[in-house]
Amino acid sequence: MKKEREPALRESESWTPPSLRALRRDPFFLGLAAVLVIFTLVAPGGAATYPSRVDWPTIAALAGLLLLTKGVEASGALQRSGHWLIERVTSERVAALGLVIAAALLSMVLTNDVALFVVVPLTLGLARIAHLPSTRLVVFEALAVNVGSTLTPIGNPQNIFLWQQWGISFGAFVVQMLPLVAILLLLLVAMTIGAFPAHRIRVRDDAKAGALDRTLLVASLLLYAPFLVLTDLHRVGWALAGVVAIFAPLRPRLLRDIDWGLLLVFVLMFVDLRTLADAGQVRAWVATLGLGVPEHLYFAGIAASQAVSNVPAAIALAEYSRDWRVIAHAVAVGGFGVMVGSLANLIALRLSGDRRAWLSFHAYALPFLLVAMLVGYLLLF
Predict the structure, then answer these.
(1) Which of 87, 130, 312, 356 could form an SS bridge with 201, CB 3.0 to 4.6 Å?
(2) Please, what is the end-to-end C-alpha distance for the chain in angstroms?
């Protein structure tokens, strides 16, 4: 009987999104779920309000972007571009600069986690061939995606939330964040030059780039601009429906393979944090912090990011302040420092495969946090 059930279980799991199966081992998700259970047990009547606590336009925008970026990634175009870059590096410093800048640029348009899933595997492959310091490269790529993704409303989840929450235009968001990103990117480039020597390397990569799915690539790129325009016009529901309607018959497996787990984590974060924010004791405590003062809001956002990561920090602060510009700067800066400051940090360190990568990460990220905090403060105030 057991042998008959195993193939059926394997078949059912093959159609279960991998990201949902992984949630069973995700401590962040399990923690959010546990908090929700506690809230429900303490106040069962509040469960009826849970759906209204979720910012569904943000979830829809994130879902559409995950699907489009998954299409670009699955087409093989980014892997082929990375292969081309790897074959042409001349020194350790050039390789590091190329990978760091590529990570920053990709994160501006493909979100920070997608940029890492593209760049980090390329980095590990190059390190095996040319004996480069893979862990240090991955650390700098984590810093790079935190910098680059700050520029645009679609660069990271907290920006998507702020963009949808306040109805900011795409261009206005970019204009506000450009000075911070420009300065931090220049600092990161200078730090990269200092951290990686100009030793010449020889790349002996005989591996061939994968096949290119031109149909999928063209469809993803053509849908990208209309999706952003409709989302900017607050028609994100129609935008998502259109993308799904095209991808479902074209490449149905992409619908299964996007990060559904991330979407579920966001739903839980909205419910947990907004339920917590509505508690009378919490509101009384937060009132003592003086978040109406922009400087207090700025430092509170950085501190909250260091404690619970910058996505929950942005969601929580939005309950107490309408100053999206200060919140955006605070949670962007808060992504540096300790590794839990940004989910991108955790993704990068997990992909590195080095259990001691967190030591190297903090050696660079903590000083960078102090500099970024000063830069953000001077730009805002």
Answers:
(1) 130
(2) 70
Note the helical H segments in 75-111. Answer: 77-86, 92-110
How far, in Å, CA of 301 to CA of 319, rounded? 12
Assessment of whether the complete model's pTM goes beyond 0.90: no
Taken in order 119, 122, 128, 132, the sign of the CA dihedral is: negative
In this predicted model, what pLDDT tens digit does every residue of 183-221 receive, in sequence order? 999 999 999 999 999 887 766 555 556 678 899 999 988
Place of tokens 């970026």: 69
Structure tokens at 320: 């107490």
Could you give the 3-state DSSP secondary structure of residue 251? coil
Q: Which residues contact 315 (CB under 8 A, 6 or more apart)?
A: 158, 161, 269, 270, 273, 274
Q: Helix (H, G, I), strand (E, B), or coil: what is residue 210?
A: coil
* Bridge partners of residue 150, in order along the sequence: none
Taking only the tens place, the pLDDT of each residue in 275-334 is: 887 777 777 777 788 888 999 999 999 998 998 788 888 988 988 888 999 999 999 999
Backbone angles phi and psi of 375, in degrees to 5: -60, -45
Residue-wise burial string across 37-62, b where 16 or more C-beta atoms lie within 10 A, e elsewhere? eebeeeeeeeeeebeebbbebbbbbb
Task: Report the 10 Å Cβ neighbour count for 179.
Answer: 15
CA-to-CA distance for 89 and 201, rounded, in angstroms? 8
Q: Which residue bears the tokens 């199966």? A: 21
User: Which runs of E-coded beta strand occur in 309-375?
Assistant: none
Q: What is d(CA 364, CA 337) in angstroms, rounded to the nearest whole number?
A: 8
Structure tokens at 132: 């480069």
